Structures are given as structure tokens and as C-alpha cells.
Amino acid sequence: MGSLFRSEPMCLAQLFLQSGTAYECLSALGEKGLVQFRDLNQNVSSFQRKFVGEVKRCEELERILAYLVQEINRADIPLPEGETSPPAPPLKQVLEMQEQLQKLEVELREVTKNKEKLRKNLLELIEYTHMLRVTKTFVKRNVEFEPTYEEFPPLERESLLDYNSMQRLGAKLGFVSGLIQQGKVEAFEKMLWRVCKGYTIVTYAELDEPLEDPETGEVIKWYVFLISFWGEQIGHKVKKICDCYHCHVYPYPNTAEERREIQEGLNTRIQDLYTVLHKTEDYLRQVLCKAAESVYSRVIQVKKMKAIYHMLNMCSFDVTNKCLIAEVWCPEADLHNLRRALEDGSRESGATIPSFMNRIPTKETPPTLIRTNKFTEGFQNIVDAYGVGSYREVNPALFTIITFPFLFAVMFGDFGHGFVMFLFALLLVLNENKIKLNQSQEIMRMFFNGRYILLLMGLFSVYTGLIYNDCFSKSVNLFGSGWNVSAMYSSSHSLGEQKEMVLWNDSVVRHNKVLQLDPSIPGVFQGPYPLGIDPIWNLATNRLTFLNSFKMKMSVILGIIHMTFGVVLGIFNHLHFRKKFNIYLVSIPELLFMLCIFGYLIFMIIYKWLVFSAETSRVAPSILIEFINMFLFPASETKGLYTGQEHVQRLLLVITALSVPVLFLGKPLFLWWLHNGRSCFGVSRSGYTLIRKDSEEEVSLLGSQDIEEGNRQMDDGCREMTCEEFNFGEILMTQAIHSIEYCLGCISNTASYLRLWALSLAHAQLSDVLWAMLMRVGLRVDTTYGVLLLLPVIALFAVLTIFILLIMEGLSAFLHAIRLHWVEFQNKFYVGAGTKFVPFSFSLLASKFSNDDLA
């Protein structure tokens, strides 16, 4: 509890690491996660530090491992993940590991490149066979047809021939065949027509099955085309257009015999390529399987090695360049383990001179370390989201473990909904050792990380549901109602009692839609319900009025107690930091201001509950009127709650009025008095003690380091100090702002706690509406069709309950509970201006394969 109540004491230590043992010592420190390194080379560029070459080597190894993981995933080979984390590799094995990985990368790239070439050749040959098969049906040609065949008649038969006609006589018929993607066919045909001016004949046919593109590997639909043209110039144009549209062009056979020979040759080459490709893939898979066995350990080792060199770059060298000096923050409780880790590292490296540490004094504010476990981690994260606590100040997380789920349950109170939430959280807790839950989607992982918060929220909601007597908007009669309806009938009483009291008879029951129970009649009210609200209120027409009054007063009581507790916790901070003057000049006036006004309001609420009964309830004064009269001083005397009420209220107002100037001026005047060399109380310090950074106390109390040795030590630690700089106006303005904020905040924060009442009312009404619109309708249906209708109604009711009342309403109550803790509770004592202790620990490195880590 000590560590959770207040952050652990820290110290600044200096490590002297021999050059030959620095790597092993930091490896031992990284395994234990004991210290946080300070950067002693802040003015040195990252590219000019001592171990930048080693960091680049680690980045090169990470690049190679990322390539290996990518190839292993592409081959669908499972990546084994070890349960234990391997240690950082010794320096002797680093060069050997680098050489092995580089050799493996070269081999994999060569084999992969050959495989891609074989695969591309195979796809081209398959396309060629499809092209030959389809184009065989395009043109019917004779065996004796030659490419030198002239399409035009002899010269003697043509009487009128010009120069152009003479050129056409020598023109030859040519063919271009290939494959084109389906989406480019129309544009391709238009381009051929426009460029070749109609001197081409294009024939298309769609392939029956899609083929894989040899260039991109994408499976798409293809069209086979055959273009007939005249002349070499047009042929060149056709080929350029085919290149522009990325057509796969293949040679077109001139004769049927040539077609048959090409087809036979293609089939033989395809079979050979299949054989060679299978053997290549088998060899590649064997290499990848062997690499997959050790890739996990190597990824972790490289990460650890890189982290070590990053920490070494934060160290400085001594004048001889033989020893590295590091400054680290370390918890005082771990100093022994720090020394042992340095000894283990020196022993592992075989050095004759061991590395050692030296504790050094400092006035700097140390980082904040609060040790948590899987139960307290979620609550600590809620507090840290507001701000990391200042060093050694009271940690609100210890009290948040109880107050946060309780305030949530006040707003969410329903026995049924809370029990469903509790079962869901219990399921997560029982299966917390399953890795899949922690690696699931972001929303599910968020629920998993907050499983213990959900568990307590559900458990407290069950309790408040029993107090409200709400279970899916219905009351549960566990102990029997304390109200007796039969006692209201006139037949249950004597004639004398019937004349004095308003009782029921058969006529009254028949002719009145609303009947009123009178608790002053003997036997009607037999005593309070043992636990929570009496279930008879669920049938009352004034149920909402009664619950609103109850929940509103309960919200005010809980809010004032919560805020007062925050002010009390501030006293523990002042005692720890040895600033007792803050207790007398700040905390006590704040408590008096809070208790004399709002504490008195709680007293009036509880007093009225205890003193006035059902018989005297009609003459009971209004608390609101009495509270207003406390400040207005009415001329006419009013009947109060108790005798002497007016004198008590005036005394409380006088105390409140006196506490305000003390709160405004007490602390600034005391610091001004202290600055002029007066004796004080409660400001002694020994060693180094945290004083809030840039605060007025630091200016006035720690302005000078010269403390006279002759002053006697008083019980409160009084010392005489001098101050180099003191700005009374600034201190006065700061304290005035704080005082105004506190005084106004007491009112606004108390009103803010009414959200407990508002959200509880909203949740109860939504639950009631959902029951009335679904379950009540389903239960009132005739028995013939009721069973068939009830099943979908129950299913819809369950879905809407989960998504609206559990998730949406639960999230709303969760956010409001966070606000009450951050704004209304923590601002009374919690500064949250610290820095979190981030140790050099290998456990913080990602231990899973992810693109971000290996990219």
C-alpha cells in the first residue's frame, strides 16, 4: 500500500562502466529494468555520437529480418514465438550473426529472383498456347500460302495504274497477334482505325478463363486479337500501338505445320518449367522454414542490442576514454539489485576491473514511480490520463479503486444490468491468460485491459441496484414490503379510530383510481425495508418524486464527502513536504469554508431524516428554505429544525467569513514575513525534498542555500532562511486566484455532483421505457401466439439492453465518473505535474511480429 499511496523514493546514481564491460552491464540492467538513463549528450547530434555505427548495423539487421519475415509470411509458413525472451547476443556473436543473415538474404533474393523469372516465362508460354488455340479459328489458310503472296492482279491486266498503285503491288500481308486486357479493347480498336486509316483487319475473341498477368501477378480477363495489315510501315505502327497499350504480342505462325511445331515445343517447355519451378519452390520453402525457426529469437536479440547502443549513446566518456559514465534515476529500494546487475555484467564479460555505481545528491525533481499490478494498473491509468503525479505526492489511484466504481454504480444502479456487466468482466478475468484476447481488435483489447475496472463497476452496480431495488426497471420483493394495505380498511379499526382517521371502505376503493396510504395510521407502515427502497414504491404514482428527492440528497451528501476527503488528503501532502504553514493557512480555512456551509447542509438533511417521523412529516420545515434563510437573515422568526438554530447558523457564517481572508492573505503574508528573516514553523528540510517546481514556496523557502548552523532546531523544524528573489505581488495574485477558484468551486462542484442523480434517473427511465415498449407488449399477447412472439421480443430486448443500456449508458456513466474524479476530487490536492519513470527495460520492447517494429 505504501508504494500505491505515494510514489517510491528515488535517487540519482552515477555508473562507471568499463569500455569492455559496458555492453554486458547494460544488458543485465535491461533484463531487470531498474533504472532510467539521463541523456548526458543532449548537445551532440545523433549522427555524431560514439556508437552510431553500431546503431546503423542494428538497423541493417532489422531490415534483413523484416525481409525474412515478409518472405516467410508470403510463403504461409507459421512464425514460432517463444515463451521466453532470449538475452542480448554477446559481442562475439554479433558479426557472425550479421554474416549469416546477409548470406541468407543474398541467397533468398537470388532464389526468389530465379523463381519469378521462371514463373513469368511459364505464364508467357501459357498465354502463347491460348493465343495459338484461339487464333486457329480466325483465319482459314491454304498450306501453300506464302507471305510473298500478292493480293493484286498482274500489271498487264491493269490499264490505269499510277505511282501509288505500283507501290501497292509490292505490298505484303502481315499478321500481329497477342493478348490485351479487357478494359483496353475498345480504345485499342479506335486507335488502330485512326492511325492505320483502315488498312488493318482486327479480330477479337475473349478467353474462357482469366489468366495471371506475368508483370503484376493480377488475375484478370484477357482478349486474344489478330491484326492483318498491308505494308511494313503500317506494321511498324501497329506494333508501336500494341506496345503503348501493354499488349502481350507473340509471333504468329505462317503455316499450319509451323503452328503444330510451335505448339509441341510449347507443351514440352511448359512441362519442363513446371518441374523446375516446383523444385525451386521446394528449395525456397526449405530455406524459409529453417530461417523461421530462429527468426523470432533474432528479432528480439537485435531489438535488445539496438536498445543497448541507444543507451550507450546517452553516456559520456571520461578524460581517458576508457570508462563510460552514465547518470540514472533508480528507486532506493532497487539500489542493491543495481549493484548486483553491474557485478553480473562485469563477471560475464570477464573484466578484471568491475563496474560500479556512486550515489550523488541532487536538487532536481526525480521522476515518479508507482508500482502496479494487473489489478491496480487500470485505475492508475485513469489517474495518469489526467496527469502523472508529482514526485512523492499522494496518489489518488489508491482511493479511486473504490470511489470510481462506486460513483459509476450510483449513476448506473441496476441489479440486472450490473450483473450482466459483472459476468462479462468475470469471463475476461478468468480467461486473462489467453494470448488471443490481448491481441484482438482495439475495442476488445480496451475491454480486456480494463477488465478489473469492469468487474468492480458491475459488482458495485449490483449493490446500488439492490439499494434502488431496480432489476431491469422492475422491483424485487425479497424481504416483504413494510407497508400493509389491509390496515387502511375501516373494518380493521375500532369505531373511535374510524372517526378520527381517513380510512378506506368498499365504496372508496371502487370510485377512486388513486388510493393513498397514510403511514400515521397504526399498522399501515410496519417498519423500513431491510435493504434499499421498499418494492411498493414501484406501484406508487409519486414514485418518481420520492426517488428524485432521495437521489438528489444522496448525490449532495456523497459529493461533499468526496470533496472534503480530497481536502484532507492535501494535508498529508503538506506534512510530507514539511510545509505545515499550508495546513494552518490553506487546508484548515478550506475545510472550515466547506464544512460550515455544505457540511451543515448534510447535517440538516440527516437531522430531518432522523428526527421527523410520518406523524410529524407535515410540519417538518423545508431544508431548502432553511438553507436560504441562513444567508438572508429574515426579519420574522421561522420555525427551524431545532432550537437555537439561528445562533448556530450565525456562528457558522462568522467562521466562514473569517476563513475567507485567511485563505486569501494568510499564506502571502506569512511568506513575506519569512522573507524578512522572521522565525517560522514547518519549513525545515534535510537532504533534498521535493518542492513543487516554480512555486512560490520554492522562491521563498529555497532561494538561498546558506543556512546558519547556529540556529536551534525546534519541533516544527524552524530555520532562518534568506531569499534572493521574492515577488509579493505575484504570490498574492496566485493565492487570490486559488482562493477564488476554491470558494466558487465549492458551489459549482457540489452542483456538479447532481449528475449522479440525473444519470441515475435517466438510466432508470430508459430501462422502464424499454421494458414497457417490448417486454410488456410481448407478455400481454394472447397465449396462442404469445410463445411465438415472445422469443423474438426477448432477443430484441436483450440486444437493445446490451447496446443502449449497457454500452451507451455505461460509457456515459464512465465518462461522468472520470470527470468527477479529475475535476471535483483531484483538484483539491493533486497537482499531477510530474514525469513518469520510464526504466530501461527489455520487457517494454514489442515481443510480437508487427510491421511497425520490423519496417
From TrEMBL:
Q: Which UniProt keywords apply?
A: Coiled coil, Hydrogen ion transport, Ion transport, Membrane, Transmembrane, Transmembrane helix, Transport
Major localization class: membrane
Compartments, record wording: Membrane
Q: Which domain of life is it from?
A: Eukaryota
For whether the record's keyword set contains Repressor, the answer is: no
Q: Does the keyword Metal-binding apply?
A: no
> Which chain positions lie within coiled-coil regions?
94-128
**Per its UniProt record, what InterPro entries does this chain match?**
V-ATPase_116kDa_su, V-type_ATPase_116kDa_su_euka
> One Pfam family for this entry, by name?
V_ATPase_I
How is this protein positioned relative to the membrane? Multi-pass membrane protein
Give the stretches traversing the membrane.
Answer: 406-430, 451-468, 554-572, 584-607, 648-666, 786-808
Give the protein family.
Belongs to the V-ATPase 116 kDa subunit family.
Task: Describe its function.
Answer: Essential component of the vacuolar proton pump (V-ATPase), a multimeric enzyme that catalyzes the translocation of protons across the membranes. Required for assembly and activity of the V-ATPase.
- Protein name per UniProt: V-type proton ATPase subunit a
Gene name, Swiss-Prot/TrEMBL: ATP6V0A2
